[in-house]
Amino acid sequence: MEHWLEFIAARYNYWIVIVLMMTGLYVVFARGNLVKKIVGLNLFQTSVFIFYITIGKIAGGTAPIYIGGELDHGDTAGHGDVGDSHGAEGAGLHDVLDDAAGAATQPISDGSAVDSLHAKVDNSIGDLAANDLKTMLKDLDPGEGGEVVASLHDDVGKVANDMLAKTQQPDAPAFDLTDDVAPETIDHAADIANTLGDAGHGLGEVIYTNPLPHVLILTAIVVGVATTAVGLALAVRIREAYGTIEEDELEVLDNVAEFGEAAAVAGGHA
Amino acid sequence: MIIASQLAVLPVITPLVLAPITLLLPKGRASWAWATLVSWLTFAACIFVLKTVAETGLISYYLGDWAPPLGIEYRIDLANALVLFLVSGIAAVVFPFAYRSVELEVDERQTPYFYGALLICLTGLLGVTITGDAFNVFVFLEISSLSTYALIAMGARRDRRALTAAFNYLVMGTIGATFYVIGIGLLYQATGTLNMADLHDRLVGQDNRMVQAGFAFILVGVGLKLAMFPLHLWLPNAYAYAPSAVTAFLAATATKVAVYVLIRFFYSIFGFDFAFMGAAFTYVLLPLGLAGMFVASLVAVFQEDVKRMLAYSSVAQIGYMLLGLSFASAAGLTATLIHIFNHALMKGALFMAVACVVFRCGSHSIHAFAGLSKRMPYTTWAFILSGLSLIGVPLTVGFISKWYLLEAAFGAGHWYAGFLIVASSLIALVYIGRIAEVMLLREPASDGKYVIAAKDAPLSMLIPMWALVAANIYFGVRTELTAGLAERAAAALMTFAGGGS
After folding, report:
1. Residue environment code for B200-221, b if the CB has 16+ CB neighbours within 10 A, otherwise e
2. Across the interface, do A250 and B156 touch by the CB < 8 Å criterion?
3. A140 and A110: one domain?
4. Which residues of B, range 193-212, sit inside 8 Å of A by Cβ?
5. Are residues A165 and A229 in the same domain?
6. Interface predicted TM-score of the whole assembly (ipTM), two decimals
7. Nearest by CB to B170, which of A45, A212, A230?
8. How many C-beta neighbours within 10 Å does residue B273 have?
9. Helix/strand/coil for B219
């Protein structure tokens, strides 16, 4: 008994969907009034909207709005628990860094990839205080490939310092990665980016709810509104043409049109 | 060349973008001419698509250059290229035909809206066919359905029952579309994707209750849209009271596109690995297809209204298509694809003939058809020839359909289904024969209730109608295009679905 109640309670959102859906369908079938039918149809469609929102919802997830770029410069000076206080930033950073890693590990034939890497690093890491980067790297487990990581620390320090300098002097011209970094260190840049990406994994990531069902349901809502509008417009026209929007009366009127008065009377009494 | 690389999107984008311009044009001839031009452009695009696909194989087009599975993909293989060709071809014939018929049946002030809505309906149908994204199907399905509700309601000028018919169709159609969305939601929950090819990959090996429920919802939802036998109740009234040109267009295209969606889901998404599908074939499609063939045909025999009779006949013909599908063989699938194509040709021609009669006699009651052979010989013979095609007489497309269907039935071991196909064709003989007898042998009713046609329908109606009748004969004799392409398409679908041929 206990676990049944739990089973039901744990899926309350689905019960809402089912109850709404059945109510809507019942109204569509059982009501003779055309406007009420349209309202029933609306209820039915709404249940599907809720169903889709249920699909997209992840427990503890936040609204699917990108948080990575919104850091306040003053307060993120790298104190306290990185995992908690900068979780949001870390996850956003991680996305960007993954991109950067992808871009940097491509064979670099011209400056464009470096530029894009630069742009991304500039846009996003630049906002994050460089201390955080260092802290993150310190938190990394050096067990695997410790040698590489150790050698990377210097590079990261350099990049981070550059960025720190930039953050402190907003008016200074943006530093150019291609100038600072010799071609052979572009590989390093890729490694750094990868390492930072892994660091991002280590942080408490922001959990987003799945945005796609929201988009789908926005589309479905538009379709639903259009359907309701057309349905109500038809109800208005039916009222103009017949003088009623009750289905049984409409049926009688149609029978008169098809079989004459007598049949309608017989049909009406039957 | 830029046009060539964007070829796949042209069939949808042409009518979609050009349709609103119709509303800005003056009433009557100008908006009609524009809409006709657009339908021809679309047809030309579809011919190129079919030609390209037949020569070079599958076209995959990324909408907005967003790669699938995240972006929407237009994926055209032979099966949907054939349906695209069919739908746009019917549109290219119906639009020129519509002018005189619409002049009579639709308020002149509404003509820009009428042609605009018809173009949007065409867009929706082509979009459903062309897209490779399951949710996109829903959007296009509703684009075509919403315009269809409006188009049917425009028949209210002649008969106010068009309004209630449109309303009922709206309720049923919306329930069907919503069921489809629920099904897609369940599949999305199981797979996390909406791209059809991706869905297929990720559904492999999944046979849990969620996928089964999704399958069932999609089957019922699409079943409502395609008027599968017990879900067909919206269709007879909608077809009977819609403006005649709309009926000719819808009867030839709308339900066919829904059948195509069903094929796409069965063969390209679920595939034969999905055990539930076999049960759906054996316990749902086969019995419902057979029941539809008989019940709807029998009901058709007793109709006084010729349009409604043909509408019931459409329900019966959809039974044939579902029957072909239910054999789960390449032969059955070929038969269904051929019948989709051929039935569109015959029903289009038949409803056009009825539209000609309505144009001259002002009614689609069987009594208005009395003695028409003397006054409207071209219309009469167009009706009779395409009626023979519906029955399945040799040298017409109907015969080709029935032949392939019988072959598939015996090949699948359903010999009884073979006999039932022949038996229900005999019922078709009865209801077509009844009209033919009235047209050929009866004297026109003299009670003055029906206008006696003074002369045959105008050329602008006769030429498109006879073009379709000629297609009925042509594709009945030369089957390379339809049967050849359908066989190739079916073979490709079967291989993809993992079934033996």
Report:
1. bebbeeeeeeebbbbbbbbbbb
2. no
3. yes
4. 194
5. no
6. 0.89
7. A230
8. 15
9. helix
